[in-house]
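pinned: reference chain
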Amino acid sequence: MRIALASQNRQTLTPHAGKCRHFFVLDTDRDAGFSSLELEPGQMLSVWGGEGWHPLDGFDVVVAASMGQGLAARLTARGIRACASAERDLREVIVQIRERRLPELALRPPSGRSLRASRSALKRSGPSGTVIVSANSPCASFANDSQWSKLAR
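pinned: its structure tokens
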């Protein structure tokens, strides 16, 4: 499982996923530790409309301290699970992911351009129910997923 942890200051989980340009990458299948992913200014999630290739394509999960519903819908439409967490300490986030106890926050409601992009992402996702946007539990849909067992090692 490939997990991107939004961390602009490279010390804590970033409070605004859309404005973050730096992500720590954890690949649980390779057990190779962390690597870094630096987005170009035009690739920031707040300006990316969900169209075309993005450096986060191929990731399974994106975790940030907060995330809007519009961004969550755009990521989910691409098969990337979106998670907002109350925990800010990166080491503790990893421990809590591995122990399946990462605290969750509600996603911010979309507005303006995010709302339009969110609606577009929802339309593209189709009737399969792949869009996971919940005001109560943004991570609940995959908290019991079999992929989490790879983290529990």
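why pinned: The mean pLDDT is 74. The longest strand covers residues 22-27.
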